[in-house]
Amino acid sequence: MILKKNSLILLWMFTALLFSGCKAKYSLSGATIPIEAKTVSVSFFENKTTLGSPSISQRFTEKLRDVVSTQTNLSLMKTNGDLHFEGAITDYNVAPVAIQSNDQAANNRLSITVLVKYVNRFDESKNFEQTFTRFADFKASTSISSQEDVLLTEINRQLTEDIFNRSFNNW
């Protein structure tokens, strides 16, 4: 009995020692974050499109900041975070996607492309510069201006989810 108890204690101590040597920490979202990282910064994403409304930069930047701060335990800083995001909105495009029999569009698609540069101060192999594109469809019988708020909310949700997963889940 004593031998069994000592074996269990030894096994528990070995397991605790094994896990204490890990370099990554995990958040409730499942994200893998370097143990040394304490801060994150998200620079303003400039609108470099010719058609996009002036508010898309602010809305996208704030959404990315919200996602990073709510899904990790990192402190959000204005600049020089241990992990850093920067980039620009590079494309804003509306195009027909579903043509009806009378050569009229039934639906239009708003597509937005964002160029993102991610810098991980502790692990350069995790750094990347990549474009992300997402879209949302809307009825062609409605104007883009009447639908833009809802469409931007959905597209920003998708884009920031993709960026978060690429940065912290290596997807």
Briefly summarize what is shown.
The protein has 171 residues and is of the alpha/beta class. 35% of the residues lie in helices and 35% in strands. The strands form 2 sheets. Strands 3, 4, 5, 6, 7 and 8 form a 6-stranded mixed β-sheet that branches.
Describe this protein's structure.
The chain has helices spanning 2-20, 56-71, 144-168, and strands at 24-26, 32-34, 39-42, 46-47, 75-77, 83-99, 105-120, 128-139. By secondary structure, it is α/β, with parallel strands linked by helices. The protein has a single domain (37-168), classed as Double Stranded RNA Binding Domain (2-Layer Sandwich), CATH 3.30.160. The strands form 2 sheets. Strands 3, 4, 5, 6, 7 and 8 form a 6-stranded mixed β-sheet that branches. A two-stranded antiparallel sheet has the order 1-2. α2 (56-71) packs parallel to α3 (144-168).
Tally of DSSP helical segments: 3
Order of helices and strands: HEEEEHEEEEH
Gyration radius, in Å: 22 Å
Per CATH, which architecture? 2-Layer Sandwich
Largest sheet: 6 strands, mixed
**Count of domains:** 1
Whole-number mean pLDDT: 85
N-end to C-end Cα span: 48 Å
Shape type: elongated
Can you tell me the CATH topology? Double Stranded RNA Binding Domain
Q: From the helix content, strand content and strand pairing, which structural class follows? A: alpha/beta
The overall strand count is 8
CATH homologous superfamily descriptor? Lipoprotein like domain
Instruction: Work out the helicity level.
Output: 25-40%
Strand content: 35-45%
| Uncertain segments | 12-29
